[in-house]
Design a protein that fits this description.
The complex is a heterotrimer of chains A (332), B (288) and C (329). By secondary structure, chain A is of the alpha/beta class. Chain A contains 13 helices and twelve strands. Chain A has one domain (4-331): 3-Layer(aba) Sandwich (Rossmann fold). Chain A has an eight-stranded mixed β-sheet, with helices on both faces. In chain A, strand 9 (229-234) and strand 10 form a beta hairpin. In chain A, helix 6 packs across helix 7 (162-175). Chain B has 288 residues and is mostly helical. Chain B has one domain (24-54, 91-283): MetI-like fold. Chain B has helices at 18-23, 26-43, 45-48, 80-116, 118-133, 136-147, 151-178, 181-188, 193-205, 207-230, 241-248, 257-283. In chain B, helix 4 packs across helix 9 (193-205), helix 10 packs parallel to helix 11 (241-248) and helix 11 (241-248) packs antiparallel against helix 12 (257-283). Mean pLDDT of chain B is 88; it is low at 1-13. Chain C has an eight-stranded mixed β-sheet with strand order 6-7-8-3-9-10-12-11, sandwiched between helices. In chain C, strands 2-1-4-5 form a four-stranded antiparallel β-sheet. The two termini of chain C are 16 Å apart. Chain C has 329 residues and is α/β, with parallel strands linked by helices. Classes of the chains: A alpha/beta (332), B mainly alpha (288), C alpha/beta (329).
């Protein structure tokens, strides 16, 4: 069960920012948004890896990179020991069948002019999942799988609620019988009561179909609930990764600590000792040198300002990218 | 355990069908009636015209409108009404042939450059700039001047210039649609570029192009008759509204109806296309 | 709830019309608020919580019909003219919205927008307005306030923009702040900062706050009292501690239990079946009945009224969940 299915190595991605005429005249160098600054992780067979972080930290970019929506600036992603960005692999569409993605916005991720049936049939036909005669029964099966009524097949996306649309998106992804699902903020656009339905469905399907899931979300409680392991991303870099329960009950990186303590508790009396972070997420246009978190960190030293900390294993915990992880966690 | 009794959202009672919505739009329906009837006249002119449009009767030259000749007769004694009716064939043909090739080329080119961007898009941008900076009519006249007058050359000329407007519109709309995740989803599903462009993006991006097409058909009739008037389009004795207006021009003080009637035909047909265009802008919008 | 409520909302009903059909966006909402108190309005999309907030300040009457009564320090707001309302808006009652970018004018500097508010609502002179503007920016935690007065909204980050919005809203020292999902567009670390700021200012200026949110955690951490809304009606209201600890209405309970907190990881979450009803086709009886496990025949035919079930505690349900000893607190 602990076989690695996907290996991401030192992934970098920067988007060039278009220069204004004034910049060109003044000969300012072209800027770029550094969305990913060396992300490495492994996805293990059958697990759910949660990815959390604040907006602009690069978690969605990572998800889109994995499904080849963005080509990385440097670094590699291996799936089944094959580089998915290699010339050979790019032509090969079986990767797209085996690794599927679900998007955040249930109102834009479905073609508004195709019925649910058309959407599912197209996926089945393009990848030749079933002979023509079995397509209709398979659509019925898929609708059943995501608990949509059978008459949903003839309806257009606008006739469904947000939660139902996400079910259609899940059905579309499952139609091609993938091994890995990338869920990018799958439920964050949904109401709380509907969120729970979709999360339950996802957990149940994972069990039944032995799926490996990368669950990207900003809702920490949700990530904790669905994940086996969790990666915390800050400014395009993983600052902490480890077993979900360990990480949530005892975060080791100062950023993880602040992030987790900021989530408001449902208990009115649990005011918590929220660790107030100074300032805000720096712009990915100019990532600070050294540790990306040092400008907001309480434990900052000179070393942090100069040297980028690498991810390293901490005893009894996961892996942490912090120079002072030991001292910080001793005090705690 | 998690029986999610899913009930489909009631789409605000029973959603009316597109046809029902269309019937509620009087402007659109008037447009449909005008263009429907115009098409009938264009296809079966002999059925509606009381006389042969080219029958010359020197005994009845430039007669005023009467019961026998409702629009009067021209300088050769031809029945003006029959000529206006027969002109429908040519002018409606203009509306279609002068635009349909521009539409097709423009939609395909616009969708491709909008989807792929890159170098092709930059070159496209320069071509658009170059063509758009010239006044349309002047450019068309220049092309006709090179190719020589006549209907076919006129169609070629209008297409050569006109596709740019469709392509520009299509490109912008495809880029806007690319911002929707269904396009990304198509890529992730491993669909071919061709499928994503033509099956997913195009149907969602084409509405403004169709609306523009309707207006453009009205403009094509106007442009075609302008060229006919100038002697660069249809050639006499062909019955064509521009030609008819030009023929009546010398008698504008004495037999004004000769120029006025084809003019009214242009206005009404143009109005018909515009009304349809306005209505389609509403009707083709995806719901929800 | 307190001896001198500053805001009393009674039987507020707001109806929008779409073509021939009337859309009952808000029905019979009542609550009152004392000085320095924070009242939460919580619910899912379409529950009417935002419309309620907009109806208080007369913003909703541009799109629909508002009935019922909103009394602000004894004055009836619903019958006031636009002109009378304008004197109250900004000066006594301020409002902040979810999306700080669209509520700020992108063409004016932050300083100009702040001083304009001051000019409209105070008698301060030019110099005093500028000083007050700097003081306000400083107050809401914007570093180097004086130098940032000349900057435009796009030069501020999301969290900073929301701080600017709060500074503008609070510039004239209002007595009541209406906040519509003020932190929904922000990240959790920034959310914590902004909520703390609002609470601190409410305390210092003894300002009442009505906070609309869909996040029960935010309610738990900031509000004194809360009203849970569903399909345009309040289904349960009372002190936050009671409502969240021992919900008596099945919907409140469903919402609380849908949130994955203190449940074993990777197990099935409790979920409320179905989806919220469309306001176009509300059921005859209790709007929640089709999704409710405790629903009986009576729930389908008659609508339960909001009734007192404990001091300061009301619920609208024929079959309320049992009270526990916690409730006595």
């Amino acid at each position: 069960m602990t076989q690695t299915v996907m290996k991401i190595e030192d992934l970098h991605l920067s988007f060039p920012v278009s220069r204004t005429l004034l910049d060109v005249v003044q000969r300012k160098p072209g800027k770029s948004v550094n969305a990913l600054n060396g992300v490495s992780l492994e996805l293990k067979q059958g697990e759910t890896l949660g990815v959390v972080g604040e907006s602009g930290c690069g978690k969605s970019t990572l998800a889109r990179c994995i499904v080849r929506l963005y080509p990385p600036t440097s670094g590699q992603i291996h799936f089944d020991d094959q580089d998915i960005f290699g010339a050979q692999a790019r032509k090969d569409r079986t990767y797209n069948r085996r690794v599927q993605m679900m998007f955040q916005d249930p109102y834009s991720s479905l073609n508004p002019r195709m019925t649910t049936g058309d959407i599912l049939a197209e996926a089945l036909r393009v990848h030749e999942m079933r002979p023509e005669a079995e397509i209709a029964p398979r659509i019925a099966e898929l609708l059943d799988l995501v608990r949509l009524p059978q008459d949903a097949a003839e309806k257009l996306p606008h006739e469904f609620s947000g939660g139902q649309r996400q079910r259609i998106a899940i059905a579309r992804a499952l139609a091609v019988e993938p091994e890995v699902l990338i869920a990018d903020e799958l439920v964050s656009a949904l109401d709380v009561s509907v969120q729970a339905q979709v999360v339950n469905l996802l957990l149940e399907l994972q069990e039944r179909l032995h799926l490996t899931i990368l669950f990207v979300a900003h809702d920490l409680r949700l990530v904790r609930h669905v994940s086996n392991r969790v990666a915390v991303i800050y400014l395009g870099r993983i600052v902490e990764i480890g077993d979900s329960e360990t990480l949530f009950s005892a975060p080791s990186h100062p950023y993880s600590q602040a992030l987790l303590s900021a989530a408001p508790s449902l208990d009115p009396d649990d005011k918590g000792a929220a660790i107030q972070l100074e300032g805000e997420l720096p712009s990915p246009l100019n990532v600070p040198p050294g540790c990306p978190f040092h400008v907001r960190c309480r434990h900052v030293t000179d070393q942090c300002r100069k040297v980028i900390p690498e991810l390293r294993a901490l005893e009894g915990r996961g892996e942490v990218a912090c120079h002072h992880a030991e001292e910080i966690n001793q005090h705690a | 355990m998690t029986d999610s009794t899913v009930t489909t959202v009631k789409a605000s009672k029973v959603a009316p069908s597109r046809v029902q919505l269309a019937l509620r739009k009087p402007g659109f329906m008037i447009g449909v009636i005008i263009i429907g009837f115009s098409t009938l006249l264009a296809v079966f002119p002999s059925f509606f015209a009381p006389y042969d449009p080219n029958f010359i009767d020197y005994l009845a030259v430039r007669q005023a409108p009467s019961w026998a000749h409702p629009f009067g007769t021209d300088m050769l004694g031809r029945d003006a009404l029959s000529r206006v009716i027969h002109a429908y064939s040519v002018n409606m043909q203009m509306a279609v042939l002068a635009t349909v090739f521009a539409l097709t080329i423009g939609v395909v080119v616009g969708a491709l450059v909008g989807y792929y961007r890159g170098v092709a898009d930059m070159i496209f941008g320069r071509v658009v700039d170059a063509i758009i900076t010239f006044p349309f009519l002047v450019l068309v006249i220049a092309v006709v001047a090179v190719l020589g007058p006549g209907l076919i050359n006129m169609y070629i000329a209008i297409t050569v210039v006109g596709w740019v407007y469709y392509a520009r519109l299509m490109r912008a709309e495809v880029i806007a649609q690319m911002g929707n995740d269904y396009a990304s989803a198509g890529i992730v599903m491993g669909y071919s570029d061709r499928r994503i462009i033509f099956r997913h993006l195009l149907p969602n991006a084409i509405t403004p192009v169709i609306v523009y097409w309707m207006t453009d058909m009205a403009l094509a009739i106007l442009l075609g008759s302008s060229l006919g008037y100038l002697g660069l389009g249809a050639q006499p004795p062909q019955a064509e509204w521009g030609v008819l207006i030009a023929e009546g021009r010398n008698f504008i003080t004495t037999a004004w109806w000769l120029s006025l009637m084809p003019g009214i035909a242009i206005v009404i047909t143009g109005l018909g296309f515009s009304l349809i265009g306005d209505g389609l802008a509403d009707l083709l919008r995806p719901r929800g | 709830m307190t001896d001198h409520p500053i805001l009393e909302v009674e039987n507020l009903c707001t109806t929008f019309s779409r073509g021939d059909t009337a859309l009952p966006a808000v029905r019979d909402v009542s609550f009152s608020l004392g000085k320095g108190q924070v009242q939460g309005l919580v619910g899912e999309s379409g529950s009417g919580k935002s419309v309620t907030l907009r109806s208080i300040l007369g913003l909703a009457r541009h799109y629909g019909e508002v009935r019922g009564s909103v009394r602000w320090q004894g004055q009836e707001l619903t019958t006031m003219t636009e002109r009378q309302l304008r004197k109250i808006r900004g000066r006594e009652i301020a409002m902040i919205f979810q999306e700080p970018m669209t509520s700020l004018n992108p063409l004016l500097t932050v300083g100009t927008q702040l001083t304009e508010t001051l000019k409209a609502h105070t008698d301060l002179g030019r110099k005093a307005r500028r000083d007050r503007a700097i003081e306000m920016l400083d107050h809401v935690g914007i570093p180097a306030a004086a130098s940032r007065l000349g900057e435009y909204p796009h030069q501020f980050s999301g969290g900073m923009r929301q701080r600017v919005m709060i500074a503008i809203a609070l510039a004239a020292s209002p007595k009541l702040l209406l906040a519509d999902e003020p932190t929904t567009a922000l990240d959790v670390t920034i959310q914590a900062q902004i909520l703390d700021l609002i609470l601190k200012l409410a305390d210092e200026m003894s300002m009442g706050v009505v906070l609309v949110t869909h996040d029960l955690g935010v309610v738990a951490q900031t509000c004194d009292t809360v009203a849970v809304m569903y399909a345009g009606r309040v289904v349960e209201q009372g002190y936050v501690r009671q409502v969240l600890r021992t919900p008596r209405h099945p919907y409140t309970e469903g919402l609380m239990r849908s949130v994955p907190q203190d449940v074993p990881p990777r197990t099935q979450l409790y979920s409320v079946p179905g989806t919220p009803p469309s306001l176009f086709s509300l059921p005859d009886g209790c709007a929640f009945a089709p999704r409710c496990q405790a629903a009986s025949e009576a729930c389908g035919s008659a609508r339960p009224m909001l009734q007192d079930i404990a001091p300061g505690r009301q619920t609208a349900c024929f079959h309320p969940l049992p009270a526990t000893q916690d409730d006595a607190a």
